[in-house]
UniProtKB/TrEMBL annotation:
Enzyme nomenclature, EC number: 2.7.13.3
Annotated protein name in UniProt: histidine kinase
Limits of the Histidine kinase domain: 241-458
Organism in which the protein naturally occurs: Flavisolibacter tropicus
Top EC class for this record: transferase
Molecular function, one GO term: phosphorelay sensor kinase activity
Sorted UniProt keywords: ATP-binding, Cell membrane, Kinase, Membrane, Nucleotide-binding, Phosphoprotein, Transferase, Transmembrane, Transmembrane helix, Two-component regulatory system
Pfam families on file: HAMP, HATPase_c, HisKA
Transmembrane segment boundaries: 155-178
Protein location: Cell membrane
Database matches in PROSITE patterns: HAMP (PS50885), HIS_KIN (PS50109)
Length: 466
């Protein structure tokens, strides 16, 4: 069912409910008002007749009948009957000849105890009223047909019925028009989104000026498009740079083999060519492994083997691991502000990836430091583990800080150094995958510091966010 029709039906159902409540209330209060009115008039008539009958020396029964006959305008088809304490009828009057009331002794007895007693006699409303005075004890029964009251209720019923039908019709039309206006921004957003493709991701949805739910939806969609465009741009750059990095050693290998096959060469020359090709193959192998690790770190935490990892143990492995990479690289470990509870140094994550991320940053620090030395500082700070890697290298200009974590990006001064420009990008993605942050602080010609912050396992358990 279309959303517009559902909104219209819901709007109509709500209007129908409100109209039902209003019409029912109007009819109920009108009905109770008629009952109160006819009962009040019957009671007044009973009291008047009883008082006249109690003064028999002044008003005889024929005179009382003439008085009762004069009230036919206010009470239609009236019947008045009076009974003494022995339930003998002592007076009777009826607007219509032969119209009498059949009153049971139980009704008369009830009226003497719970006067007045209201009841219905056919289409008439009736009252049994017990009147007492020092000289008289009688029960007056008055019945009459409330023609005007019932006619008014019938008229009101017709008015409410047609008002109800008209109200439902107007509610349906109003709901249909209201839903059209309500869904117009959604249709507009859908039309604008349908025109966006991979070729024109720069197009954005118009948000308007009123900050309502549609503004929030448009803003959210634009933020999504920004992330998609950034991902597409990153993918394009990554493919272009990866292709370039892979084509360079392939071109070198192809050229060397082509030259080697042009003529016969000595064993030493073939050995030199094979050695050069081997170095190019080794470079391609390192690049391929790095790209595979980069692709693995670009996934989500749901696809990783997550376990509790001791960050102090990973830090302590760095000196020996980095010296294997190059003997001249030196790593100094410094522990600061460590907690008494060792569990506060445990994080949730993949140990191999966290080890790789820290290793890349430390190797980078040693590579670009003048003394090939890096310092690792481990500290605990407000439900988080902080690992700071510091070097005394050339430093990174501040405008470059936001670019160094991009794949294949290298600072201009370091383009001659060995590497692919994937180390920091890979580390940044791994840290982000573990819900951590990595920041850089650097001064030109003084060195750089990379600050890694990871939430502890205890804090993640309390927040249930991993």
């Amino acid at each position: 069912m279309p959303v517009r029709l559902r909104i219209t039906l819901l709007f109509t159902a709500l209007g129908c409910l409100i109209l039902c409540l209003v019409c029912t209330s109007a009819y109920y209060f009108s009905y109770t008002s008629r009952i109160h009115s006819i009962r009040a008039r019957l009671t007044n008539r009973a009291i008047t007749t009883a008082r006249l009958l109690s003064q028999a020396e002044i008003f005889d029964k024929e005179l009382i009948r003439r008085i009762d006959s004069s009230t036919t305008i206010t009470l239609k088809d009236k019947t008045v009957q009076a009974y003494d304490y022995q339930n003998h009828r002592i007076y009777s009057y009826s607007d219509k000849p032969g119209d009498t009331l059949s009153i049971s002794e139980q009704t008369l007895d009830d009226s003497r105890v719970n006067s007045p007693v209201y009841f219905a006699e056919g289409t008439k409303d009736a009252i049994a009223y017990h009147y007492t005075s020092p000289t008289t004890r009688i029960v007056i029964v008055v019945a009459a047909n409330d023609v005007e009251g019932k006619k008014y209720l019938q008229y009101l019923t017709h008015v409410l019925f047609f008002s109800f039908l008209g109200g439902i019709l107007m509610t349906f039309i109003g709901g249909y028009l209201f839903s059209k206006g309500l869904l117009r921004p959604v249709r507009k957003i859908a039309d604008e989104v349908s025109e966006i493709s991979a070729q024109n991701l720069a197009t954005r949805i118009q948000t308007g000026t009123v900050q309502d739910e549609w503004y929030h939806l448009s803003t959210t969609m634009n933020e999504l498009l920004n992330r998609l465009q950034e991902s597409f741009d990153l993918q394009k750059r990554f493919i272009a740079n990866a292709s370039h990095e892979l084509s360079t050693p392939l071109t070198s290998i192809s050229s060397q083999l082509e030259i080697a096959l042009q003529r016969e060469r000595s064993a030493s020359e073939y050995r030199n060519i094979i050695q050069s090709v081997y170095q190019d193959v080794q470079q391609m192998n390192r690049l391929t492994q790095t790209l595979l690790e980069f692709a693995k770190a670009s996934g989500s935490a749901g696809g990783l083997e997550i376990a509790q990892v001791r960050m102090d143990e990973i830090v302590l492995q760095m000196p020996a691991e980095v010296s294997k990479f190059k003997k001249e690289y030196i790593v100094v470990v410094d522990f600061q502000n460590l907690p008494e509870n060792e569990e506060q140094l445990i994080v949730f994550g993949n140990e191999a990836l966290l080890f790789l991320a820290l290793k890349n940053i430390v190797i980078n620090a040693c590579k670009y430091s003048q003394d090939h030395k890096a310092r690792i500082t481990l500290a605990y700070n407000q439900d988080a583990v902080e690992v700071t890697v510091t070097d005394k290298g050339k430093g990174i200009p501040e405008p470059e800080w936001q670019n160094i974590f991009q794949p294949f990006y290298r600072v201009q001064e370091n383009t001659n150094e060995e590497g692919f420009g994937l180390g920091l990008s890979l580390s940044g993605r791994i840290i982000k995958l573990h819900k951590g942050t990595i920041q850089v602080q650097s001064q030109v010609d003084q060195g750089s510091s990379f600050i890694i912050t990871l939430p502890t396992a205890l804090s993640l358990k309390n927040n249930s966010t991993f």
